[in-house]
Amino acid sequence: MSFHPIVLLPEDYVVLDFTGAGSAPERPPLWSVGRYDEVRPSLYTDALFSDGRSVHMGLDIGGPVGVAVHAFADGVIEHAGYNPAPGDYGHVLVTRHHLAGGPLYVLLGHLSAASTAQWSPGAAFPMGAVLGWLGAPSENGGWPPHVHVQLSLARPETHDLPGVVHLEERAAARARYPDPRRIAGALY
């Protein structure tokens, strides 16, 4: 199937690597991609992650604040909300799509406040529609501007999914939250 890009990236984006012992760079590249299923031993320092979770279950696409986040396919807004804790998603949309084999849910996290203000559950949108915009750290959980894209085969009960899991949960999480490159393409 052919899908619309979630973020229109330039050709010279950087694929990030958080597998080392160092923390995130103070000045991340303007355009970047963070990998799915990556063990990130030093990145999650906020109290939200004090339980030791370190495996990233989404795909991060970084760019400047205000960059548009597009619908990869036709769909419906399932949830819109705000997760306020430092290190959390900030403003979030969860969309529902019907692809071959059944429903697919997509969490888009770290968005701007305007992104969630414009949508209500049940609202339909076409492929390519602007669903929201990359949020500033003050509204996206304190992160450099990016969108966390996470797939779920199960319907989320609210505007939240575990974007980072424990190492021993990795296999089960991969089965429930498949690789977002299925819809975003081979970004790395």
Explain the overall architecture.
The chain is mainly beta and 188 residues long. It is 9% helix and 32% strand. The protein has an eight-stranded mixed sheet with strand order 1-2-5-12-9-8-7-10. It has a three-stranded antiparallel sheet with strand order 3-4-13, with no helix packed on it. A two-stranded antiparallel ribbon has the order 6-11.
List segments where confidence is low: pLDDT < 50 over at least 5 consecutive residues: none
Tertiary shape:
globular
- List the total number of helices: 3
Radius of gyration: 15 Å
Fraction of helical residues:
under 10%
What is the average of the pLDDT values? 94
Q: Helices and strands, in N-to-C order?
A: EEEEEEEEEHEEEEHH
How many strands? 13
Q: Strands across the major sheet, in which order?
A: 1-2-5-12-9-8-7-10
Strand content: 25-35%
By helix and strand content, what is the structural category? mainly beta
Question: Roughly how many Å apart are the termini?
Answer: 19 Å
Largest sheet: 8 strands, mixed
